[in-house]
Amino acid sequence: MPQEHYDVVIVGTGAGGGTMAHALSSSGASILLVERGYSVPQEAENWDPAAVWKQLRYRADERWLNDAGREFHPFMHYVVGGNTKFWGSVLYRLRAEDFTGVEHHDGVSPAWPIDYATLAPWYDRAEALFQVHGQAGADPTEPPRTGFPFPPVRHEPRMQLIVDGLLAQGLHPSYLPLGLIRPGEPGGCVLCNTCNSFPCRIHAKSDAELLCVQPALATPGVTLWEGAHADRLITDATGERVQEVEITRKGRTVRVGASTVVVSCGAVNSAALLLRSANDKHRNGLANSSGQVGRRYMAHLATMLEAFHPFEVNPTVFQKTVAVNDFYFAGNGREYPLGHLQSQGRAHGVVAQTVAPSIPVWAYNAWVARGVDWLALSEDLPREENRVCVEPDGRLRVRYRPNNVVPHAELVAEAVRMLRRLGFWKVVTHSFKVQNTTHQCGTLVFGKDPRTSVLDEFCRSHDIGNLFVVDASFFPSSAAVNPGLTIIAQALRVADHLARHDLQHREQLP
Ligand SMILES: Cc1cc2nc3c(=O)[nH]c(=O)nc-3n(C[C@H](O)[C@H](O)[C@H](O)COP(=O)(O)OP(=O)(O)OC[C@H]3O[C@@H](n4cnc5c(N)ncnc54)[C@H](O)[C@@H]3O)c2cc1C
Predict the structure, then answer these.
(1) Which residues line ligand 1 (CB under 6 A)?
(2) How far apart are the C-alpha atoms of 450 and 469, rounded to whole Å?
(3) What confidence tens digit (pLDDT) does each residue in 289-326 have?
(4) For position 506, what pLDDT does the model report?
(5) Which of 5, 21, 321, 333 has the smallest number of CB atoms closer than 10 Å to its CB?
(6) Could you tell me if 335 and 376 are in contact, meaning their C-beta atoms sit under 8 angstroms apart?
(7) Structural domains of the chain, with CATH
(8) pLDDT tens for residues 157-167?
(9) 15 CA to centre of ligand 1 in angstroms
(10) Is 137 left (phi over 0), alpha (psi -120 to 50) or beta?
(11) Measuring CA to CA, which residue among 6, 3, 8, 5 is closest to residue 502?
């Protein structure tokens, strides 16, 4: 018998789980948040590049296996707020076309079961909740929308010169949509150079802990268990409902009863949790009658670029304000889409040194001071063979072979040309390739047909009525912009559905 019972148990407190907790907190339901990590302490190391990038102070101490069966260190953070504590907080809507089937170099990126118009009102709410700053109207790929809830973060003078140069090249640079808390205002975000991949020491970056979990915990009925790892979901005898969540906490295994379970562990760990929950009624893993659990893992093709000018020190502190989407779609002589470009947070010498440790850090510092940093992102396509597996010894294996690499190479070449035309002498590129798990998605894809998808359009399992998965797992395609805002918008939409259909029903019970 479980020791405790909750109306809703949410596993994971990142973009998906944190948002769900916030959205459901006003429902009056009893909610347990189960989080394997702990809150990141506010400390000097938050903004110390050596602590973050060399000592890997906040990185999950875990190894996964790759396609070849070799260990790698995934870019994961198991903390309250999940990976949102470390994100760059670039919060994009997908383009309207991303919801439709799009022809790419390596095949068709499949249509979503919902269109952009369905998600648009939830994007509005997501932007308000995560305090997104931006400016509508400049990005040629922008979907139909009203204005942003907050004005854009203005370009620093050197970045404005770059924007002017891009305009002169006939491109259409736009402001990056950014989730920041009162940037530039007293007591708000100080627009520093330790944002992307760092936790915010002054709590001024929009993340799921600050904006969702903490307010939810201030509501009666919401409980957080930190350091609590969900090991398995247990179904009832019919196998049609999840009845309990088995959790390891403080060295003990406990079972918690739940009327509704929301799995929000991130795309890799959510798939793993369902696979590990196999039982007599679900021999291949929970919610897996389609055989699709773990499959269609995607991660984006991502390359970092540093453009260098030997005689010009770049004084920019907060650099990630510019986006270029001119290469996002086919057209203008391109037969297929290439992807998205965005300026990045400033590189730090010690971070660059992790790529080639033999070069001294002072040399890197001199280099990065004269550089400007960009990121190129391209869409990878969902493939059944790109999948998350749990090995017989319990280890996680991510079998991923990138595809659509030709357009990504072309995007990087376009970016190099663009930066050289701006006067930068040299452009250096670097990619973490298959080890880059930061934009992981897919694995529990949503769709209309239970034979080919795991979740319905409200992220409810086709097989198990009281099981939802709300995180990056549901993406049927990865698009080429950052995934966070779409996870949040869909979480808000699912929470509304769940509150009206499942929790409403709870109130009618005797
Ligand atoms: C350095 C970095 C920069 C990024 N920058 C951006 C950006 O600028 N814009 C953007 O949109 N995206 C960005 N991302 C990606 C973004 O952070 C993720 O897409 C997003 O956080 C995924 O949300 P999620 O809910 O799927 O999972 P997460 O946010 O990863 O949350 C999963 C949670 O589940 C917990 N968990 C996992 N397994 C278990 C278990 N078995 N039991 C209990 N708890 C469990 C984890 O500890 C975690 O808290 C970035 C990511 C990184 C790492």
Answers:
(1) 11-17, 34-37, 75, 78, 82-84, 86-91, 196-197, 229-230, 264-267, 269, 273, 438-439, 471-472, 482-484, 487
(2) 15
(3) 999 999 999 999 999 999 999 999 999 999 999 999 99
(4) 63
(5) 333
(6) no
(7) 4-154+178-299+384-394+439-508 (3.50.50.60)
(8) 999 999 999 99
(9) 6
(10) left
(11) 8
Strands (E), 132-274: 132-133, 173-175, 178-179, 222-225, 228-235, 242-249, 252-263
Hey, what's the torsion of the CAs at 122, 124, 125, 128, to 10 degrees? Answer: 160
pLDDT at 1: 55
Q: Which of 483, 196, 207 is nearest to 351 (CA)?
A: 196
d(CA 249, CA 36): 8
- Coil vs helix vs strand at 62: coil
Residues contacting 12, CB < 8 A, separation 6+? 34, 35, 82, 263, 264, 265, 266, 269, 270, 471
Distances (CA, A) of 10 to 26, 271, 311, 377, 383: 15, 15, 53, 31, 29
On the question of pLDDT at 127 being above 50, the answer is: yes
Residue 271 backbone phi and psi in degrees, to 5: -60, -40
The packing angle between helices 484-498 and 116-129, to 10°, is 100
DSSP-based three-state secondary structure for 246: strand
Q: What is the pTM of this model?
A: 0.97
Pocket test for ligand 1, best of 36, 52, 58, 83 (most atoms within 8 A of CB): 83
Residue 51's pLDDT is 97
**DSSP secondary structure letter of residue 297:** E
Q: Rounded CA gap, 99 and 88, in Å?
A: 24
Structure tokens at 24: 């459901």
Asked whether the beta carbons of 437 and 76 are under 8 A apart, the reply is yes
Cα 390 to the chain's mean position, in Å?
22
- Is residue 228 within 8 A of residue 434, CB to CB? The reply is no
Helix (H, G, I), strand (E, B) or coil at 448: coil
Q: How many CA atoms within 13 Å lie on the side-chain side of 482?
A: 24
Measure Cα distances from 457 to 116, 275, 348, 357 in Å: 13, 21, 42, 47
* CA 394 to centroid of ligand 1, rounded, Å: 22
For 420, the 3-state DSSP assignment is helix
Place of tokens 């502190």: 317
What are the CA-CA distances from residue 287 to residues 40, 54, 130, 231, 292 (Å)?
Answer: 33, 40, 31, 16, 9
What are the angstrom distances between the C-alpha of 42 and each of 11, 93, 201, 507? 24, 30, 5, 40
- Amino acid code (one letter) for 209: E
Query: Tokens 């929308």 label which residue?
Result: 145
Cα(450) to centroid(ligand 1), Å: 27
What whole-number distance in Å separates Cα of residue 320 and Cα of residue 175?
9
